Please model this.
Amino acid sequence: MNLREWALPVYTIMIQMSVGMLLVLWILRSFESGVKNSALVDRIIRDPLLVIITTIVIGLVGAHFHLSRPFLSFLAVRNFATSWLSREIVFTIIYSLLTACLWGLQWFQIGSFRLRTAVGWLAILFGFVTIYCMGHIYLLPTQAAWNVPTTIPAFFGSMLLLGVMAQATVLIMDLRFTQVRQDESMAEWSLIITRAVKRLAVAALGALLVVVLINALHLYSMFSGPDLAQMSYELLMELYKPLLVARFVMLAGVGYLIIPVARMPVTGKTVGELFTLAYLACLLAIVAEALGRFLFYASHIRIGL
Amino acid sequence: MIFIHFLSGLAFGGLGLAAYLQLRQGSDLPLGRHLKWLAAFGFLAGMTSWIDMFLDGSMDQYVRVLTILRMFTHPLTGLLLIRFGWGLMRDTPLPAWTFFIPGVLIVPIAYIVTYAATTFITPSPLEIPIDIWSRYLLYLPGSIMTGIGFIRQYNLQRHKGLSDAANLLLGAGLVFLFEAFIVGLVVPPAPYGPTSYYNYDRVAYDAFTGENPAVSMFAGFTTWLDYAGVLKVTGVQIQFLRMLSAGAVTFFVVRSLGVFDANRKRQLREMQEQRDQAQKEAIGTQVSARQTAENWTEVLININRQIMEMENVDRILMYIAGNARRLLQADLVGLALLTEDPDHLELKCYASGSTTRIVDPPVLVQAPLLLETFRSARTHCSSGTETPDQLAQITCGLGQPARGFGSVRLELDNQPIGLLWATRPEEEQCSETDLIWLECMADQVVIAIQHGMMTSQLQSLSITEERGRIARDMHDGLAQVLGYLNLEVQTLGALHKQGRGDALIAELEKMREAINLANADVRENILSLRTTLASEKGLVSAIAEYLDEFGVQTGLETCFVNELEGEFKLSSIAEVQLVCILQESLANIRKHARAMKIDVLLARRVENGQESIYLEVSDNGVGLSEKTSAHSFGLKTMKERANSVSGKLELHSAPGAGTTVVCQLPCLDTEGLKKNPLVFSQKNRATLLKDG
Model:
């Protein structure tokens, strides 16, 4: 892969991560937004929303490095009816705009709570559609290694794992930052984040299992697929075997690091003390997913010309 | 090249050794806590350099072993440097915004690591990506963090005033940043970016695509900036620059380790200064405590003196309140006494600001807090839980709003009689010592009141005694004369009937003499009473006036010599007794001595350190025999008067040689005597005797 091709994993992974983070954030918001907590929860989700927007921007910038003529990318909309790539572009734009709108509503406290809730879920819905289109692009009859049922679920698995891990890290980081500044009451905030991070750690373990399972199924699909799919499988098992092993080792490492976070009440450590573990787990998860995406692209063998 | 590697290894080894030796000495500086990582880094970096030396040499049989060994030592060196730099950076408080740095870097780091992982499957020998990514991912951030850590230490030490050591730390920081560039960025050649740019040689091959890197060169870097360009300009190999960097790192770091000695000296100096300061503070505290104790003692002595001198009780109470306020640094000191109703207190006296006053008529104290503390405890100190309204009431509207107070109940024979309290406008509460002193003052108030009551009783007794004396004098003098005159009138009647005119005239003469005698007695008594009651003028003036009046009334020559100068401390009772003794002496002289002249001497005398007032009354009359003086009722009374105030009285007389009465009454205060050492001089005594 040359530099231009590396821009593609940046886009796909960043967009998937942002949708996952938004989904996780909105679920947490639903859990925590009681009558008593709504103002504080509004304050808590303000900074993570900014991180989500930044992630989307990085993804979009990355996507344009992949294009030959970035400034003409809008022309892809013309093929919306026939092309999954065009649909991906359209839905990515809608998702990005909706998320930006949501951030604006949340940051400046515009509109009612219900309105913001609705915009958030709408953005998540379009995020899902975007990821679906993103995955569907690769269901090409000419690419035996990609044209398998696990391709789209693998993208959603990445979304789930990265979203959970990244959101947990962002929430802890924001808590520590605000604690150091000490310009706000932190007791209730800390309690909410502690509760949320514990739930996210458990969710991350679940997402990890889903990702490993999908990857195993993906390998099995190639192994039991047509000849070209088997050739891709052999490629993975020979030339790229070290990277494949490294990816699974990293996923195992994510689990190893996240278990103490999930067991936080038992170990007695505070959420701040577990930041390093959460951060390293998130880093490993991103690396593992980036490696996975590299292997995904590297394993393709085209049928015909 | 071998020599360059040798020197690099030597430099790093020296760095490790210096750090290790310093580590053994121990230190509580942040740098000291991480020296173990620096020592390990130095030893391992030196080892790596010497491995390079052997690899460059002609030891072909060991190349494989040395290469494998280097594949471990090189990344480990970078890891140790990261650990050292991270620890050094974190030990000084970081700004809040730095918490976001890991978050911002997580995505780039993740992609760089991913990219690095993919390079391990290229055809390059394994040691090449290990070397390259050890430099990019470990040595580069490690050097940057170490450089920043040293610069932060520089700031820290500079603020502590260790500028010499601080400058060396700054040098170490800058050298590590230089090291980050030449060790972390310049890497061996490899068939993938970004090593195709900053490496020893440009590689025109991409392992994945086979593209020409010149075509895919990122962001239009110019060729003169790459390592080949630098080499062309400087003519110096990268290994030589690294050796220089290693030497500079070792030089600055080893020299900056002197910060530990400087810090130890500074700590020693600070400890000495703290000890000196503590000694000064202790001495200051002692002096202050002593001064406070002296002030309180002086006030207590003065109060006792006033009580002994039977000064006016109100004046004593004002003195107590005023001084208690001053010494307790209180805003208000109030004194309330119990009324006939045991539930009510009346404000008797207070001191606030520069005002000290007796409250007349007394005002009823209505502050519930004071009444509550009066009922509940002997001593009480505000706890800080009182409301502002409660505290405002205890000032009775006389001072600033109180924010704390202390109170002591006055007790006489274990019965509560009043309350003494002090208020403060600041948050500071009364201390235990304050309460103890307030308790002392309360005791003095009780003593003053008790003495006042006793003095009042004594005055009643004195009046009764004086009435008895007047009655006795009237019985012995005027009543006898009147009885005698009654008999004489009967005699005159009889003589008149008998027609004995001469005898009648003679009896009339006797009656006239008797009347004169009675008149003299009455006038003397009046003079005595007046003189005793007029003691406010002062003892000396009273005596002088009395003698003048006595001389006029009796026609006797009186001579008064006063050798008292300055103040003298004689109690009020003693003064009264002294005047009475003088009057008794003069009355005796008039009645019995048939003298023509009376000398009176008043002086100060010191015996065994005890100051006393000396009174000598002498006449040139007929004198007394021993038998007469022993049975004299007047003399006995005078001795009793002198004894009642711890004094003594002596009588020196002989028939035909006049009589001398000597009386000595002790003073209260001997300190005053030291300042005014006026004693009864022999010269004055001689003059007096000569005049007599």
